[in-house]
Amino acid sequence: MTFYRKALFATLTVASAINVAQAGVVIGGTRVIYDGNKKESSLSVNNPDTSPYLIQSWVESPNGGAEKAPFIITPPLYRLDKGQQNVMRIVRTGNLPEDKESMYWLNIKSIPSAERRDNTLQIAIKTRIKLIYRPSALKSSSAEELADKLQWRAAGNELQVTNPSQYYINFNEIKVNGAAVENATYVAPGATARFSLPASVSHGSLTFKVINDYGGVGEAHKGTI
Predict the structure, then answer these.
(1) What is the pLDDT of residues 112-162, one digit of tens each?
(2) Could you give all domains of the chain from N- to C-terminal order, each with its CATH number?
(3) CA 168, 99, 90: angle at the middle one, nearest 5?
């Protein structure tokens, strides 16, 4: 086998493994809203594939640091056979602010099983979704209503958005004069988020869409900077 044929074979093997892993395990949500009124929350993991997977899950702090997150997941490691579904329990183990939401990252790694063969590569796929703790003192609030309270301004080559509410606001998209703002993620409660403005844009009309508790995208909101 020539060098180029070997390289092509390796590329196709990796691509095939990635496609299988992505088509295999299905996570039952794009985010978890942990209701402070309840003792635990849950998330389903389904395997419609024909092969079993090893599932590992854990919670990280917002900045991905080494500090321990105040949540445990049970079971943290398990085998998910073909056609099976498992429900993971998420339990709070530490104190969190009760006057505003807190956000962490829930990681789920799925490792496909495979027969031992030459020239093959197993790909483990890690899914990371938001885990948002909503204190019992806060009622469920519409992301669309909260979006209208956001305060926008331009500062140099940055777009700044201030969130006066007690909730995390997650963005699906932000555009200034029709140009998309890259890496528009979220703004924390009582905080200001900063994103880079599109090239050659310093002010003008602004449109944005927010994501609700169920992962749905709302209508476009308008403003100016």
Answers:
(1) 987 655 555 667 899 999 999 999 999 877 888 899 999 999 999 999 999
(2) 3-134 (2.60.40.10), 143-224 (2.60.40.10)
(3) 65
In which element (H, E) is residue 6 found? helix 3-24
Beta bridge mates, 104: 131
Sheet holding 125-134, edge to edge: 31-35, 125-134, 102-112, 53-60, 77-80
Angle at the Cα of 44 (from 51 to 13), degrees rounded to 5? Answer: 30
Continuous H helices in 61-106:
none
CB 144 within 8 A of CB 219: yes
- Give Cα 179 to chain centroid, integer Å: 24
Q: Give burial (CB, 10 Å; 0-12/13-18/19+) of 187.
A: buried
Token readout for 9 is 């074979």
